[in-house]
Automatic annotation (TrEMBL), chain A:
Keywords: ATP-binding, Ligase, Nucleotide-binding, Protein biosynthesis, Transferase. Allows the formation of correctly charged Asn-tRNA(Asn) or Gln-tRNA(Gln) through the transamidation of misacylated Asp-tRNA(Asn) or Glu-tRNA(Gln) in organisms which lack either or both of asparaginyl-tRNA or glutaminyl-tRNA synthetases. The reaction takes place in the presence of glutamine and ATP through an activated phospho-Asp-tRNA(Asn) or phospho-Glu-tRNA(Gln). The lineage of its organism: Bacteria, Bacillati, Bacillota, Bacilli, Lactobacillales. Its EC number is 6.3.5.-. It comes from Leuconostoc carnosum (strain JB16). Gene3D superfamilies: 1.10.10.410. It catalyses: L-glutamyl-tRNA(Gln) + L-glutamine + ATP + H2O = L-glutaminyl-tRNA(Gln) + L-glutamate + ADP + phosphate + H(+); L-aspartyl-tRNA(Asn) + L-glutamine + ATP + H2O = L-asparaginyl-tRNA(Asn) + L-glutamate + ADP + phosphate + 2 H(+). GO terms for biological process: glutaminyl-tRNAGln biosynthesis via transamidation; translation. The keyword Endoplasmic reticulum does not apply. This is Aspartyl/glutamyl-tRNA(Asn/Gln) amidotransferase subunit B. Heterotrimer of A, B and C subunits.
UniProtKB/TrEMBL annotation, chain B:
It is an enzyme of class 6 (ligase). Heterotrimer of A, B and C subunits. The lineage of its organism: Bacteria, Bacillati, Bacillota, Bacilli, Lactobacillales. Allows the formation of correctly charged Asn-tRNA(Asn) or Gln-tRNA(Gln) through the transamidation of misacylated Asp-tRNA(Asn) or Glu-tRNA(Gln) in organisms which lack either or both of asparaginyl-tRNA or glutaminyl-tRNA synthetases. The reaction takes place in the presence of glutamine and ATP through an activated phospho-Asp-tRNA(Asn) or phospho-Glu-tRNA(Gln). One of its GO terms (biological process) is regulation of translational fidelity. InterPro entries: Asp/Glu-ADT_sf_sub_c (IPR036113), GatC (IPR003837). Keywords: ATP-binding, Ligase, Nucleotide-binding, Protein biosynthesis, Transferase. One of its GO terms (molecular function) is glutaminyl-tRNA synthase (glutamine-hydrolyzing) activity. This is Aspartyl/glutamyl-tRNA(Asn/Gln) amidotransferase subunit C. Belongs to the GatC family. The gene is gatC.
Length: 479, 102
């Protein structure tokens, strides 16, 4: 990759849908996948005379993201109208913040593939509203669903600090994780909850001025973003090498060909005719409010990873797996807080629980497993009450919502460690198998394996293998 | 006064942003009218506003906010019946294929 004599400059504007209960300016529910236009009212439809009131929760979510990205929360916010005509928004303007972003001067420290840390500065963040969804029919009409219209978005505008398509990819992945751990959004790519507008320019090394930038909008996959940028930096280099000029334009990325094509020559910002929104009251954010929001902000993924490794003795890779989603990390924290052994809890979540989620194509929160049940099962293993083998059955049961101890009792899944009981079986088995004792004394290790097999059969698999093995060797030595 | 005079091209551009189509006579008419209006603003610009905070809102209200509680007003049927055309619970509009809107 790379373009020889040119250096690449990339900036990203990322839009993330917030998982609020209601929309930014109307109380209509925010819920993906409902029947078309189910979650709409006169405000969402842009009727005249409506009285929109901004959602406090959306603003607080915006503040959370600003805090998580090390930005300054603005003490004063007012709203602006960004005007454009398109059927996905019948108001004909988007309510946004152009002059008073909720957060400014943030940054995200991005770990690149070679392990170096790159600080990407974040210029500003805006709380604004999403548009509805247009579907183009093949009958010359478009069909509009306004369920998404008015869903709160947080827009995160980076400085042009990103120097390659791979850096852009790493930034997006780590930005997504940072947002996941604010609890503001699940940032589900397949549901379009996170989309990126990218701009890219190239310039000869050593040049003091940026090249003309080209923009690509609304890309909802990190891989597509990387592919689009790879194509675009090569295209621009070829244009410049052949003596051409880069036009400021908006291009569209086409995945099947992994190329970009001209969509339109860019309109100026003036064309959006921003002006102050007269229908919404300005918002003053004082330090106390910021502190209240900061107190609700979940601990970040990187902080949790550090705690897992330093305090709980979890391997760094495992700590990373546990922090891939906020739900998983919260679940792990709750399991450990409930008294489960930290390593065993990590192993179960990374291994069996993840395998279960993959097999059944469900999210952790969609399963019937609770931290208390997982920790309950782990405590049964730790205390020797059940064997790890028996735990397999208990695991199946807790995944269907059963209480582990009750299930183990009901199904006779108890490990017998009582030496008196075990010795009774050992004496019986040894008395019945004099040949095996001879074999053992003759140095045949396999003989103990046979004897253990007999003992397991006799105990119906309930004998504690560790205790039994020890007692058996002691008894053999006596004979 | 002539410095605020708006050109015919600018009027045509603003009209296209507002999805309005003017014929030549209308374009001429609106260019003159808009120029006159802008010239009135020129008079206003004579007032020194260097240290005056712009007025963004005419009420003294601040932090008039709503708690994040969902409430479905169940207006779908009425809203769709008021749309000029709808099908399968969707609003039906002439196709616009120049891009993704914004």
């Amino acid at each position: 990759m790379g373009t020889g004599n040119f250096e690449t400059t990339i900036g990203l504007e990322v839009h993330v849908e917030m998982q609020t209960n209601s929309k930014l300016l109307s109380p209509s529910p925010v819920h993906y996948g409902d029947e078309p236009n189910e979650n709409t009212n006169v405000i969402d439809f842009g009727y005249p005379g409506v009285l929109p009131v901004a959602n406090k929760g959306a603003l607080e979510y915006g503040m959370r993201v600003a805090l998580a990205l090390n930005a300054t929360v603005s003490p004063f916010i007012r709203w602006d109208r960004k005007n454009y005509f398109y059927p996905d928004n019948p108001k004909s303007y988007q309510t946004t913040q152009s002059q008073t972003p909720i957060g400014t001067n943030g940054h995200l420290d991005v770990t690149l593939t070679d392990g170096t840390i790159k600080r990407v500065r974040i210029k500003e963040m805006h709380v604004e509203e999403d548009a509805g969804k247009n579907t183009h029919g093949d009958d010359g009409y478009s069909y509009v669903d306004l369920n998404r219209q008015g869903t709160p978005l947080i827009e995160i505008v980076s400085e042009p600090d990103i120097a390659s398509p791979d850096e852009a990819y790493a930034y997006l992945e780590q930005l997504r994780q940072a947002i996941l751990f604010t609890g503001v959004s699940e940032a589900k790519m397949q549901e379009g909850q996170m989309r990126a507008d990218v701009n890219i320019s190239i310039r000869p090394y050593g040049s003091n001025e940026y090249g003309t930038k080209v923009e690509m909008k609304n890309i909802n996959s990190f891989t597509y973003v990387r592919n689009a940028l790879i194509f675009e930096e090569q295209r621009q280099a070829e244009v410049l090498r052949s003596g051409g000029v880069i036009q400021q334009e908006t291009r569209r990325y086409n995945e099947p060909t992994k190329s970009t094509m001209l969509m339109r020559v860019k309109e100026g910002a003036d064309d959006y005719r921003y002006f102050p929104e007269p229908d919404l009251a300005p918002v003053v954010i004082d330090q106390q409010w910021i502190s209240e929001v900061a107190a609700e902000l979940p601990k970040s993924a990187s902080q949790r990873q550090k705690d897992y490794v330093d305090t709980l003795g979890i391997a760094p890779y495992d700590a990373e797996v546990l922090t891939q989603t906020l739900a998983m990390a919260d679940f792990y924290d709750a399991t450990v807080a409930d008294g489960a052994d930290a390593k065993r809890a990590a192993n179960y979540l990374i291994g069996d629980v993840n395998a279960y989620m993959n097999k059944h194509q469900v999210e952790l929160q969609e399963t019937k497993l609770t931290p208390e049940h997982l920790s309950g099962m782990i405590k049964l293993i730790e205390s020797g009450t059940i064997s790890t083998k028996q735990a397999k059955q208990v695991f199946e049961a807790i995944m269907t919502g059963e209480e582990p101890e009750a299930f183990a009792k009901k199904n006779g899944l108890v490990q017998i460690s009582d030496p008196t009981v075990l010795l009774g079986w050992i004496t019986e088995v040894l008395d019945n198998n004099p040949q095996s004792i001879e074999d053992f004394k003759g140095g045949k290790d396999r003989a103990t394996g046979y004897l253990i097999g007999q003992l397991m059969k006799m105990s119906k698999g309930q004998a504690n293998p560790g205790v039994m093995n020890k007692l058996l060797l002691e008894e053999l030595a006596k004979r | 006064m002539s410095e605020t005079t708006i050109s015919k091209e600018e009027v045509a551009h603003v009209a296209s942003l507002a999805k309005l189509a003017f014929n030549d006579a209308e374009l001429e008419q609106f260019t003159t009218q808009l120029s006159d209006i802008l010239n009135i603003f020129n008079t206003l610009s004579e007032v020194d506003t260097d240290n005056v905070e712009p007025t963004y809102s005419v009420t003294e209200n601040i932090n008039h906010l709503r708690d994040d509680i969902a409430d479905n007003w169940h207006q779908k049927e009425a809203l769709l019946s008021n749309a000029s055309s709808s099908a399968a619970d969707l609003i039906k509009v002439p196709a616009i294929l120049d891009g993704e809107g914004k």
